[in-house]
Design a protein that fits this description.
This protein is of the alpha/beta class. It has a single domain (about 1-85, about 155-235), classed as Rossmann fold, CATH 3.40.50. Helices cover about 40% and strands about 25% of the residues. It is built from ten helices and ten strands. The strands form two sheets. A six-stranded mixed sheet has the order 6-7-8-3-9-10, with helices on both faces. A four-stranded antiparallel sheet has the order 2-1-4-5, covered by helices on one side. About 40% of the residues are buried. The protein binds adenosine-5'-triphosphate (ATP).
């Protein structure tokens, strides 16, 4: 469904991605594991058209995404929830959520239905919908960021480090919601340093080091892999 083939990316003369090939099939939850600076965000930013690949191909269904504008990629159904949430802190929770609906702005009825679904997924946001997003806790802000991405009606959702900076109990809640979104039919690519929690909900995962894929496998093979456990799980 979403396929990267031999994708490369340069920041000036720095080669951030070098021949990255990976895929996510319809309905899968695929995790990208890697330390700080491995290239996880670069993969997402290239897929969502923020950066342009220097080489290779990114296909979603049969559409080539390389060369498309970021807004067109969202319209095609590939939506990124960025690292660090990137909310507008002074704006209300509701307004932040509705920014995600911009690509469907003519479909008022559809957006209302979708908003109801997003608020059902995150009941706490219903209570806080008129509060400034910046007044919410870290976990609640992460929920707004995911909710905003869901308002774009993704077929494939790219989640970049959603657990960053959150307390363990909140991480658990965020991962439960991600699993729920996936089970309801959205394909998910999840970039995480929190390897154990991410692998537990994954179907498959890729390990990225220095802009390369160094390992690929299903959840159990990676959870049981000695090198992965040592490097990313600390066991
Ligand atoms: P993190 O979790 O820290 O975001 P990551 O795996 O997502 O890590 P990337 O953000 O993709 O890694 O970064 C990959 C490499 O590219 C790193 O060495 C990083 O310093 C470098 N890099 C990222 N963005 C830029 C940029 N705009 N200009 C130059 N180098 C960059």
């Amino acid at each position: 469904m979403l396929t990267l083939e031999n994708v490369s990316l340069k920041y000036g003369s720095f080669q951030a991605l070098d021949g990255v090939s990976l895929n996510a099939k319809e309905g899968e939850l695929v995790v990208l594991l890697g330390a700080n600076g491995a290239g996880k965000s670069s993969i997402f930013l290239t897929t969502s058209g923020i950066h342009r690949a220097a080489g290779g191909s990114i296909r979603f269904h049969n559409q080539e995404l390389v060369g498309m504008r970021a807004a067109q990629i969202v319209e095609a159904g590939v939506v990124q929830c960025p690292e660090g949430r990137k909310l507008f802190p002074q704006m209300s929770v509701l307004k932040n959520l509705m920014l995600g609906a911009y690509v469907h702005r003519r479909d008022t009825a559809g957006n209302k239905k979708r908003l109801d679904e997003v608020l059902a997924l995150f009941p706490i946001l219903e209570q806080k919908k008129d509060d400034p997003a910046g007044s919410l806790s870290g976990g609640q802000q992460q929920m707004v960021a995911i909710g905003r991405a869901m308002m774009s009606r993704p077929k494939a959702l790219l989640l970049d480090e959603p657990s960053l900076g959150l307390a363990p109990l909140v991480v658990k809640q965020v991962f439960e919601v991600i699993q729920q979104i996936n089970r309801a039919g959205t394909t998910v690519l999840l970039a995480e340093q929190n390897a154990f929690a991410a692998l537990k909900i994954a179907h498959r995962a890729y390990v990225i080091e220095g802009g390369h894929i160094v390992m690929e496998g299903d959840r159990d093979s990676l959870l049981n892999n000695e090198a992965v456990r040592r490097a990313y799980i600390g066991a």
